[in-house]
Write a structure and sequence with these properties.
Urease, subunit C, domain 1, 13 helices, eight-stranded mixed sheet, TIM Barrel, eight-stranded parallel sheet, alpha/beta
Length: 382
């Protein structure tokens, strides 16, 4: 069955040859886009839906989330808003709750947040383990996440759990834990940060993952200037995430590499950190992605539209730059840029229709729910 979406007022394709089209149409054939062009030239299809002048764009690609968790950290958030500093050690609270939760409870949390994200236009989701921090709980987190999201990342090196010294725990992550989890994930990640893992420990984790054929990701430069960006670029990581504190050397390294700088503005607001200098990265030629970092401690949101509005209103990105970062940029961070985050023949049919005439309304009307409908792999999802 083919589906024609027609009378699209503004169509953002993220392609060089198509760009942004007005009075556009596209045809979905199964899970893929079969045709894109002007409404006046649209071919016949089994079914046609007029979008009545609404804007359409690729679905959001949320390339950084932490959905396999249990428990609540409202009190920590309230304390932070009252002036307490954010520290990585708060993760331990979620680890305890996650270990105590049943498989059914964890699965429900993941499914609920995925549904919430999809209803707001997110069509492709990565999520991480990292709230188990022992072999059985990291394994079940990966397995449960894999039944709900598109990509899973192993983040056993999220924090050193109580009762361990850092080097011994890294040995566990690189050995028995990795052996158990690797068949169920595509990526490995490490929190290279003060209070978590230093450069040497982080390098060991990434090297072990690479040896098992996993792609590399890094949490880095969130709480202060540090080695995360440099290590990510050195080891050819697909993405280094946070990038809140960057030196000129860090920006230069990113701009001359294939490593994507994934910015997490909702997290910076929630932790009262400074927002990253997105324009310095863009001006240098680095690839920038935006992601939600949905997690219970430092960024409890599934709204990519909120991240886009924040990037435009407070990080001085243009609407076009922010939307591209939240779609194609996220796809590039997952090395899927020819398949998702883009509207062209052959790409996955992930389409986000706005109840607005242009993408500018995403920042022009911040906080307003503008999602009209969502097609995920060709199916009407919301």
């Amino acid at each position: 069955m083919t589906l024609l979406l027609t009378d699209i007022g503004e169509l953002t394709t993220n392609t060089d040859n198509l760009g942004t089209l007005t009075n556009a149409a596209l045809v979905i054939d199964g899970t893929r886009i079969a045709w894109v062009g002007p409404t006046s030239a649209a071919p016949a299809a089994d079914t046609a839906v007029s979008l009545g002048g609404r804007a359409a764009l690729p679905g959001w690609v949320d390339s950084h989330t932490h959905l396999a968790f249990a428990g609540d950290r409202t009190e920590e958030f309230a304390a932070r808003m009252a002036g307490a500093a954010y520290r990585a050690g708060g993760i331990a609270t979620t680890v305890s709750a996650t270990r105590s939760a049943s498989d059914a409870q964890l699965s429900d949390v993941i499914a609920r947040h995925v549904a919430e994200a999809v209803s707001q236009g997110t069509t492709y989701i990565e999520t991480k383990t990292g709230y188990g921090l022992d072999v059985p709980n990291e394994l079940r987190s990966a397995q449960l996440a894999g039944s709900h999201v598109d990509e899973v990342t192993f983040l056993g090196a999220h924090l050193v759990p109580a009762g361990w010294d850092a080097d011994s725990y890294v040995d566990l992550v690189c050995g028995e834990m990795l052996d158990a989890v690797a068949p169920h994930v595509r990526w490995i990640d490490v929190f290279c940060e003060t209070g978590a893992f230093d450069a040497s420990q982080s390098r060991a984790v990434l090297a072990a993952g690479a040896a098992r054929g996993l792609g590399l990701r890094v949490h880095g430069n969130q709480l202060d200037y540090g080695p995360g960006v440099r290590l990510a670029v050195e080891m050819g990581a697909a993405s280094v995430d946070h990038c809140t504190y960057l030196t000129k050397s860090d920006v230069d390294d990113l701009s001359s590499s294939e490593t994507v700088a994934t910015l997490l503005p909702a997290c910076d607001l929630s932790t009262r950190q400074p927002l990253p200098d997105a324009q310095a990265l863009l001006n240098a030629g680095a690839t920038v992605a935006l992601a939600s970092n949905c997690n219970p401690g430092s960024s409890y949101t599934t709204s990519m539209a909120f991240c886009v509005a924040t990037a435009v209103l407070q990080m001085r990105m243009s609407v076009q730059e922010a939307v591209r970062a939240a779609t194609w940029g996220g796809a590039r961070a997952l090395r899927r840029e020819n398949e998702i985050g883009i509207i062209k023949p052959g790409a996955r049919a992930d389409v986000h229709v706005l109840d607005a005439p242009s993408i500018t309304h995403l920042a022009y009307r911040p906080g307003v729910p503008l999602t009209h409908s969502v097609y995920r792999a060709g199916k009407l999802a919301a």
